[in-house]
Amino acid sequence: MDAYRTKSSETIREAVGTARLKDGRTVRRLVDKSLLRGRGPDIRGYVQMLFLFITLWIGVDFYLFVGGLERGVASATARPPGVESFLPISALMSFRYFILTGILNHVHPSGFFIFVAILLVSTLMKKGFCSWICPVGYISESLFELGAKMFGRNFRLPRVIDVPLRSLKYLLLAFFLVAVSALSVDELRSFIYSDYNKVADIKMYLFFAHISTAAILVIGALVVLSLLYKNFWCRYACPYGTLLGITSLIGPMKIRRVEQTCIDCGKCADACPSLLPVDKLDAVNSPECIACYSCVEACPVKHTLNMSMASGRKGLSQKQYALLLLGVYFGIVGVAMIAGLWQNSLSPHEYLELFRNIGSISHGF
Ligand code: SF4
Ligand code: SF4
Known about the structure:
Elements: H1 9-16, E1 18-20, E2 26-28, H2 43-70, H3 88-101, H4 109-125, H5 128-133, H6 135-151, H7 159-181, H8 185-192, H9 195-198, H10 200-209, H11 213-228, H12 232-236, H13 239-248, E3 254-257, H14 267-271, H15 294-298, E4 305-308, H16 318-338, H17 348-356
Antiparallel strand pairs: 1-2, 3-4
Bound molecules: iron/sulfur cluster (2 copies).
């Protein structure tokens, strides 16, 4: 079916094939040659690299910050606030605390703003966080692409395993949501301002800096599974992506298919990393859609698949989507920075004190 990429009109007729009308007659489906197109530049890849670079930068800064604590010196400005994006449970608690009290905590304020920015992106623009921003999503995608090169294809779990395994992430999310919802305002405040929450980022760093054999084995298994199956971690285990998938159902933006110009080639479904039957749907309503544009890019007929607010409305190009996503995300982060709410209020002296006793600090649950 790659025939539609050639210039000959004869080949185009062959590519569009035939369609059966309701009265049983069969007609040839024709598509204007000018609508057939090739692949455009992959803007998403550049955005993913940008966020990977930011993550690595934060990682190096945080490494230097903890190194300073280990040597007994600390500077408040050396700690990159962006590290709080790796504390989603703490951010969820901060979010609920803010909803209940209107108070923005000053222990991990940037974690709160990043959480809000990600929720907003997902509500307005599908689960774009997973395929445009999240470094784990980027690594996952790179791994399955590498796996496809190594094994000639990616594999697919049988439905009887796939469906129950996919419920795992919903159970994990339900566990966290129920646990956080059960906390009173006093309990939330007590956790947010606890020593454990104050050093949660440092504890996470130490976990990876002194990683156990069991953790290496788990990560190794995930890497192997990610080579074999598309987005294994995101599809089966990530509760954060699951939350975003649910919020993404609220928004009007969706991948929509124009039935009249669709030539039923199935390229979109083949390209979809979330294994969605895009070629059979008028609009993709699934919480699994990560707004990656792979289907749009794979579709040979221009304007047949669009990311749009309603059917018949002009779709957002990848470039427009990228600008909107970056605008919403960095808009919220920028406002927090300009308003002086980005940095936390812990002093270098407090960090040094906490670090000296870090072995004895636990969450107390
Ligand atoms: S390929 Fe299309 S339907 Fe599938 S996840 Fe990406 S944007 Fe959504
Ligand atoms: S919407 Fe899917 S099936 Fe239809 S033409 Fe595009 S790629 Fe082919």
